Amino acid sequence: MKNKLKIISVIIILLIVSGLFLAGNFTGHVNNNQKPAWTDKMQLEYANTLLSKGLYANAAQEFEAYIRRGGIDSKDLASICNKLGNIYMDLKEYEKALASFYKSELLDPNPEYKQDLNQKIVSALESLGLSQQAQYELESRTSIKPAVQSNEKIAVRIGKREITNDEIDMVINRLPEQVRKGLNSNDAKLKFIREYVATEVLYEKGKKLGLDKDIKIRGAVEDFKKQLVLQELLGEEIRKELKTTPEDILLYYKANKDKYSIPAMAKVSFLELSDPAKSEEVSVQLRNGKGKRIEQWIQKGSTLISQDIGESKEAVDSIFKQEKGTLVGPLKIKDKLYMFIINEKEPEKERAFEEVKDRVEGEYREQKEQQIVQSFLNKALEQQEVEILYQPKIENEKAKK
Questions:
Q1: Among the listed residues 256, 342, 223, 336, the one whose alpha carbon sits nearest the alpha carbon of residue 291
Q2: Considering the domain 40-141 in this protein, what is its CATH number?
Q3: CA-to-CA distance for 79 and 28, rounded, in angstroms?
Q4: What local confidence, expressed as pLDDT, does residue 20 receive?
Q5: Which of 234, 239, 326, 360 is the Cys-Cys partner for 322 at CB 3.0 to 4.6 Å?
Q6: CA distance 273 to 330
């Protein structure tokens, strides 16, 4: 009996082992032949699709996932890391951008996009406020030897940081000309230095609090940087294209003489009417010199009568349609009725060219600069084949109705 039990036990064990062996072979056979539902190629295409649709944050996540899958050629991986770094730059996530750029550089030290990669690394460091590291990278990547440290006197010490006279002078030279002119005296310059140092101290404090990493601040910095670059670019274009001659300025003056003439002026007296029926009575009082005199001149084309009465284009136009000694009104101004008498009147006077030459030249240059800038912008848009498809929401809502 015992022998039979042993035999049965052995048979059962053999059956179990055989079953496991067959199951393993069957499973392995299926896994070897079954294709994965989501391939590396699909993952890369998906990431690129998100990027093309402007979903930068989502695209970055999917490129990260693609990188983690592995099995990618080093040059291809370097290109993906560079692309990922550019996405993080657009997202103002400069730490992640730097990490991606450095990884790309290690994978492929000499890519076709090396110059652009160098610029992006320096730009990311500057955006993080790491100016010294950015300068080091710039010098090492462009083979520029750092300048020999000068023996310039120290102007300010902030903890361990030293600010030289050269640095102060550089900051002052970047100021607008009108501001620089106000720093001629020692007292004015000392006041400016105090304010500059206070700004530096507060900026460092803000960085310690992590405020420099705030996405809104980074966006504002990028916008400001764009404006500075644009101003410099447009300034170069204006300097290249703007050419003026004395003849041009004189012709501009002759074509706009009315603009530079002294306008017609008038002085009046007035009385307020409590009742329109009393206009004849008030007229007599005005003719007898009993009106309230307005001492300042009223200019043709303006709207102001006086500080007491207020503004009224209709009243000013009515006054200049009449001659000296004429009654005007009754006219309603701010819910009140007034009558006026014209005491004095001066006709429009032409200003000689020499009197207004500087103003004419300034306005002529401004007009030409605007034309140059507009032409430059139009050409830039044409060269890039820009097509603006934006439609205001209001128009869309009207179309639906």
A1: 342
A2: 1.25.40.10
A3: 36
A4: 45
A5: 326
A6: 8
Res 207 pLDDT > 80:
no
pLDDT at residue 29 tops 50: no
Task: Report the distance separating Cα 391 and Cα 401, nearest Å.
Answer: 16
Q: Are the C-beta atoms of 126 and 134 separated by less than 8 Å?
A: yes
Here the tokens at position 331 are 């006219």
User: Containing H/E element for 332?
Assistant: strand 327-333
The domains of the chain are located at 1-34, 40-141, 262-346
The helix/strand/coil state of 32 is helix
- Do 330 and 339 touch, CB atoms closer than 8 A? yes
Q: Are strands 304-306 and 298-299 parallel, antiparallel or unpaired?
A: unpaired
CA distances from 165 to 149, 152, 154 (A): 13, 7, 6
The residue among 75, 50, 53, 54 whose CA lies nearest residue 65 is: 50
Separation CA 4–CA 56 (nearest Å):
73
Mean pLDDT of 245-266: 90
Which range has the worst mean pLDDT, 11-25, 188-202, 222-236, 365-379? 11-25
CA 12 to chain centre: 81
The pLDDT value given to residue 371: 92
Tokens encoding 254: 């002759």
Query: What's CA 399's distance to the chain center, in Å?
Result: 32
- CATH fold label, 262-346: Chitinase A; domain 3 (3.10.50)
pLDDT attached to residue 148? 44
| Closest to 271 (Cα-Cα) out of 342, 326, 337 | 337
Query: CA 257 to CA 349: how far, in whole Å?
Result: 10
Beta carbons within 8 Å of 83's beta carbon, 6+ residues apart: 51, 63
Distance CA 272, CA 332 (A): 10
The percentage of residues in the chain with a pLDDT greater than 90, rounded to a whole number, is 17
Residue 161 tokens, joined:
């940081």
Q: Quote the radius of gyration of the chain (alpha carbons, Å).
A: 40
Contact 24, 12 (CB under 8 A): no
Q: Estimate the crossing angle of helix 353-383 against helix 215-241, to 10 degrees.
A: 120
